Amino acid sequence: MNNSSIVVVLREAIRFLFVAVLLSCVVGNLFADEQLDSASNVDRVDASTLRHKVICGYQGWFRCPGDGTRDGWMHWSRNSRRVTPDSLTVEMWPDMSEYGDDERYAVPEFSYPDGEPAHLFSSANAKTVERHFGWMQEYGIDGVFVQRFLVNVGNPSFDKVLANVRASAEKTGRVYAVCYDMTGTPAERIYERLTSDWKRLVDEEKITADDRYLHHNGKPVLFVWGFFSDRFDAEVAHRIIDFFHAEGPYQVTLIGGCNWPWRTDTDAEWARAYRRLDIISPWNVGHYAPVDGKRIAATETWKADLEEARAHGRELLPVIYPGFGWTNLMGRESERHTIPRRGGEFFWEQFVAAQDLGIDMAYVAMFDEVDEGTAIFKVTNSPPTQARFQTFEDLPTDWYLRLTGEGTKVIRGTKKAEKELPIEEPAVLQP
């Protein structure tokens, strides 16, 4: 090959490389634009108000050995080192069929009816929390109150769960707010532990600056659960309310979780404390009325609760739950406390009651609470055979996610709730 031929070949090679690089840049930019468009097209729930929303409680307290924490089988078992039929504390077993291999933690000595090894999930796994939020997005559920237990404030794994929730809410367009649970904390430590942790979350973690952090009436929402007059003095309750009402960076719209008969509390200072909460949320789980041989959620107090709250310039956030049971947690003698779901009718009747009263916000207890059998997320109908569990009685595993989505439409005012269930089982395809 002579010199002129070599020059021609080199010129063509350079031209080819230039075109290839140019095309690569164009395609790359188009792909990046498509990704940005996809992210911006996520249906983002309005985070400026609690009105017309259904928010689920998100316990986020489940741990497994190997999940990067030191908590062992937290909330799956009384024994952090192992799960046995006697140590088991959950009433339902999650449907693990959709979880990835890196989200499933094998449970030794537990197996499904087909003989396959059983697995559980960890709330400390970011991928799992994102999966849960993906379900909320898919079924039209607005977001969560992420539980933060005062007794666990020093445990770094709960900060990890909160970080997972923040990232997942951002990615899926859901909203979230913190819910402190004061249960189990000595009365003399409640105020300091509660306020110091909130200051840290606001000052250092900047959570209230998140685009997805829920606000209401122009202020961040904070749920504090456990305003029960038999747990601590009213003076502590007033100190807590004073702190969160004081103008400044820690001021919030304060939701107070209290006992359901709050209106009739005879302690004058406690009665005044309840009526100082911005939003009153009476805990209704386990509260039912027997009607025609069935257990019906006790919603007859809601009308008077709503009237009393409004009379004091406050709002009401009713608790809606799908059923109840805690025999593995509390023992066989507690089986009498079980509240059957009746295929979703127990759950749906509460949305109908809320609609009839013109209630425009609701708290669903809970998204992932399998300890007390109130979970609405996907639960298996074929749990391990080594213990007794509640199931969805052969209904689809997403049955209560679908019902919650329909209930959200009712609370938004975009759907009228009839007494009959609004969903049906999918038709079985014939071979």
Fold and architecture overview:
- There is one protein chain.
- The protein is α/β, with parallel strands linked by helices and 431 residues long.
- The chain has 2 domains: 1-40; 53-412, TIM Barrel.
- The chain has 10 helices and 14 strands.
- The strands form 3 sheets. Strands 1, 4, 5, 6, 7, 8, 9, 12, 13 and 14 form a 10-stranded mixed beta sheet that branches. It has a two-stranded antiparallel sheet with strand order 2-3.
- Helix 4 runs parallel beside helix 5 and helix 9 runs parallel beside helix 10.
- The N and C termini lie far apart (69 Å).
- Residues 1-10 and 16-39 have low confidence and may be disordered.
Topology (elements, then pairings):
Elements (H helix, E strand, L loop, with lengths): L2 H38 L12 E6 L46 E7 L5 E4 L5 H14 L3 E7 L6 H17 L2 E7 L5 H17 L11 E2 L2 E9 L6 H12 L7 E7 L8 H7 L4 E5 L4 E4 L2 E4 L4 H10 L3 E2 L2 E2 L6 H4 L14 H12 L4 E4 L34 H14 L19
Parallel strand pairs: 1-4, 1-14, 4-5, 5-7, 7-8, 8-9, 9-12, 13-14
Antiparallel strand pairs: 2-3, 6-7, 10-11
Helix pairs in contact: 2-3, 4-5, 9-10
Oligomer: single chain
Tell me the name of the CATH homologous superfamily of the largest domain: Glycosidases
The rough form would be described as: globular
Strand composition percent: 15-25%
Low-confidence segments, given as residue ranges, are 1-10, 16-39
- Radius of gyration from the CA trace? 25 Å
Distance between the termini: 69 Å
Largest beta-sheet characterization: 10 strands, mixed
Question: What is the architecture of the largest domain at the second tier of CATH?
Answer: Alpha-Beta Barrel
Name of the top-level CATH class of the largest domain: Alpha Beta
